[in-house]
Design a protein that fits this description.
Thioester_dehydratase-like, 3-stranded antiparallel β-sheet, 143 residues, globular, mainly beta, Benzoylsuccinyl-CoA thiolase, ChsH2_Znr, ChsH2_C, 5-stranded mixed barrel
Length: 143
């Protein structure tokens, strides 16, 4: 898990991505920015943590059909499962956030403009650690 990128220890209903908003120009950033406003037209520097919209609309999508190279965790003995990568537009924040679709959702299940929601996901796990992340789930699909 990347600390500070999403809520922790919350159920699916309360799960949210976390960004930052500049108090001077109201620009929102994800991944979060804690040092300075990245808006080149702004001289402000105070940033406040904000939860991002839970829902958005599919802006674009594709599938990942290759086994990622090291240092990504990938069991070479396991059967490779392609994943769906989804770019989601958060209208209120006026930004696009990239993430994987929930397991089992394929590109054939998606359409540009379709509404999706962010849910907690698992990137990898072993006997000691679970690496959490976020996934995009089309509305009406159980995880």
């Amino acid at each position: 898990m990347v600390a500070g990128w999403f809520t922790q220890d919350s159920g699916e209903e309360d799960f949210r991505l976390l960004g930052t908003r500049c108090t001077a120009c109201s620009a929102v950033f994800f991944p979060r920015e804690d040092s300075f406003c990245r808006n080149p037209a702004c001289t402000g520097g105070e940033l406040a943590e904000v939860p991002l919209s839970k829902r958005g609309r599919v802006w674009s999508y594709t599938d990942g059909r290759y086994r990622p190279p090291a240092p990504y965790v990938c069991d070479p003995d396991a059967q490779w499962e392609p994943y769906t990568l989804v770019a989601v537009e958060l209208e209120a924040e006026r930004m696009v956030v990239l993430g994987q679709g929930v397991p089992g959702v394929r590109v054939s299940d998606l359409a540009v403009g379709m509404e999706v929601e962010v849910v907690p996901g698992v990137l990898n796990e072993d006997g000691d650690t679970v690496w959490t992340t976020w996934h995009w789930r089309p509305l009406g699909v159980a995880s």
